[in-house]
DUF2007 domain-containing protein (Chryseobacterium koreense CCUG 49689), 77 residues
Amino acid sequence: MSELVILLQSSYLYEIEIAKSKLASRDIPSYVKNEFVNNVAVFPMSQNYVLVVSENDLEEAKKILEEDDSVDESEML
């Protein structure tokens, strides 16, 4: 079994969730660390959210997140 390794860190949960969705669409499981910290804390905390993946999926996950999401005009309806 491989270890979980950090793929992405961000102060914004939405950035982590977008990356997680991209990976899920390619069948790469990922997990968010620190997702609920601000729900428990009395005062909002400045902290990073962390997206982790299996060590075996790390290189493929990096490639997916580096892909350009721009749409070619010829593909638009």
Summary: The two ends are 45 Å apart (CA to CA).
